[in-house]
Amino acid sequence: MDMRELTKGLFRENPLFVIVLGVCPSLATSGSLETALAMGIAATFVCIGSNVFISMIRKIVPGGVRIACYIVVISTFVTITDLFLKAYFPDISRTIGIFIPLIVVNCIMLGRAEAFACKNTVMDSLLDGIGMGCGYTLALLLMGCIRELSGSGSLFGVKLLPGYNPMNVMISPPGAFLLLGLLLGFFKWMQLRKAAAK
Fold it and tell me: What is d(CA 56, CA 54) in angstroms, rounded to the nearest whole number?
């Protein structure tokens, strides 16, 4: 068991800011902290569950059908997540809507299944799923915090900046693209700076 598998998804191989996967749902669900958190938790659950299960069956899945098997496994965990949200959190389910079922084809899930879970032990795959899921959730929360605070002066719907003149563009799709571009540039600059310091 290698604890680096747990921490790599947070910064060094962050799915959104470093590997640049899962961009579409990130842009669509990071308009507020609430939807960003819901999407992050859902993606983390699916990533952990599918990683562990794929690692468990990796030796019995024929190579020719492995991608199809991975999609079935991932879609099972997505269905569980979608039904859970519809049953217990209907408002959040309606808000993030189609982006939960689309986790099935999210590059993060398929990428982790193909690049990691099918080649590693169950415990390492569990740690990888937790790390990647938490890294993705942290990225969504950072975007959600910046967008909601600058776009409406609130966090989790609670006004924090009375009298603040909101930048409505930040809670719109162009604001999401602008913020993601700035954050990607910042993380790339940090990587280059770290590499130059070695």
Answer: 5
